[in-house]
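On clarity, I found the account of how folds are encoded harder to follow than it need be. For illustration, here is how one protein appears when written out as sequence plus structure tokens.
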Amino acid sequence: MSLKKNSIFTLSLLLCLGLAACGTQKNTTTSKKETKTEHKTSKIKKKISSSSSSVTPDPNASERPWTYAHDVYDAGIETYRFTKWEVRGSSQKDKKALVLYCDVTNNSTKEQDPSNVFMVVHAFQKNETSDVQLDPGTVSLDNNGNNPLQKYDDGLHNMLLPGKTVKAVMVFTLNNDKPVRVTFEDPEFNVIGVKNYNVADKMK
């Protein structure tokens, strides 16, 4: 092979190697971008999944221990997450009502009645002589004669499907403006949690 041909061959070889290297670098960059995109997509999917309002129904949900902590009442087959509270006018004349908003989740594999919670959650308020248990109540109607909390009432009283979560309210008719003590019980009706509400602040 002549010197001239040898130089041309060497130049061609170097050019091919250079193009191959550029291609590899481009592929590596593309691969990194794809990996980053996949990771970002995975995080978005995970976030969407974690914000879902459903849980996997558990056939053994009734065996779970009942607990109350940080506004979450886990009663085995159902979990009540209390999100906020307020005082509204009561349907009873000249009275007020304590409204407790909550998200209710059916942990079991069967339909459940969230309103059964009134069997194990009670509210108490003192008067001049006694510590009185408050009755479940309803709020006053709006100007159109409708219950302003109807969808939340429905959430509490409609049968809840397995694994699903609904927004609901628990309403208690107040006797006065003194603090309200709400108790949470276990299956044997032992108190496992207490929450106090200073309703006077909401009445101002």
User: Anything to note?
Assistant: The first strand starts at residue 67 and ends at 69. Residues 177 and 201 are 9 Å apart (CA to CA). Residues 1-52 have pLDDT under 50 and may be disordered.
